[in-house]
Amino acid sequence: MRDRRMVFFGIARGAMAIILALAVGAVFIFLSSKTPFTALRYLLIGPLLSFHDGSVIFNAQYLFQIFAAMIPTIFTGLAVCVMFSANQFNLAGEGCVLAGGFIGGILGVYLQINSGWHAVVCVLAATVACGLIMLIPALLKVKLGASEMVTSLMLNFIILYVVLHYLNFNFADRTKGATMTKAFRSTAVIPSLVPGNSKMSVGFIVALLATALIAFFMYRTRWGYAIRMIGINESFALYSGMNVGWTIVLAQVIGGMLSGMGGSLEVLGRYQTYLWRELPGYGWVGITVAILAKNNPVYVPLAAFFIAYLNKGCLLMSTHCDVPSEMIDIIQAAIFLFFAAEQFLSGFRQKLVVKTATEDLMRLEADRGSRGGGSHA
At the N or C end, where does the chain have fewer CB atoms within 10 A? Predict the structure, then answer.
């Protein structure tokens, strides 16, 4: 009974946080828009429905675009879930997405493999490279006690400027008007799953498979158990004989590999050339996704869908109304604040715990009374 009610409380708390975050966004929409109700319509139902001459029709292309936008955030959400489960607040997923996209893109231009394995090699190389990159904050934490939050945050900008240096001076296509690489070889481009301009590539299937794999790893293997136990109580894990240092490194390396894979799949599946010249933002969105999913990999696709849906709604709202697309940042920040607030709905939770404990006590006393009456007879 108690577990069931705690699950209900968790769902109710999450739903209330989302509702309040949307309410905060609605307040800013009413303050900034001359047509707030039209703007809200595009935000809430526009990503699925199109409005033409008074008619409302389902727009499948919009849905596919949402699925396409989910691909990198599923990977960064999974990465954050693994690292945060070990109580490692590593923020270098943002830089690893950039590095993974760059490495995959460069190999997509210059590596010559005339087969379907070209894209696979590009993605795997980016994945391994970003896992090695994430060794930097992990080893600094384990060997020197450096804060992984600080080192990983600084690592993002190191990665950014290293990528910009090589993009500008070694790999830029000088025939183009903007700084970008040459076009990817056709064998390196990840194919689309559906026709049209949705850019929903095979990466979506890979993201779902990665979700299943990480969920199995976290809840069905001893390494996943060690990661979760260290996150719950590192001292207990240490005194119970777990290799805490190795597990901390493992969690962060897995996070880097997932982020790098997401970046390479995004670049090779959505673009024809590498053209990122700034941090793409997917690493930060991954933190919001992981918070929405409560660090449970199973719920990451749902959380990524919610964020991608809101992004599409904000884009439509800014296109058709006088509301800036940055409204999504306000909503995401509000979601983060409400979910991160430990005391949010704590009074309701306390009442739920007391009620459950009282019912359990009354049930126990009734059972004792019935057993006592039976033995007396």
Answer: C
Domain boundaries, position 98:
70-308
Interatomic CA distance for residues 21 and 331, integer angstroms? 6
What's the pLDDT at 354? 60
pTM over 0.85? The answer is yes
3-class DSSP assignment, residue 57: strand
Residue 343, pLDDT above cutoff 60: no
Q: Could you tell me if residue 318 is inside a domain?
A: no
- Give SS3 for 369: helix
Q: Does residue 345 surpass a pLDDT of 70? A: no
Average pLDDT taken over every residue of the chain: 88
User: Is residue 342 domain-resident?
Assistant: no
Please report whether residue 370 resides in a domain.
Answer: no
State the Cα–Cα distance between residues 77 and 253, nearest whole angstrom. 15
d(C-alpha 88, C-alpha 70), whole Å: 24
CA 70 to chain centre: 9
185 in a domain, yes or no?
Answer: yes
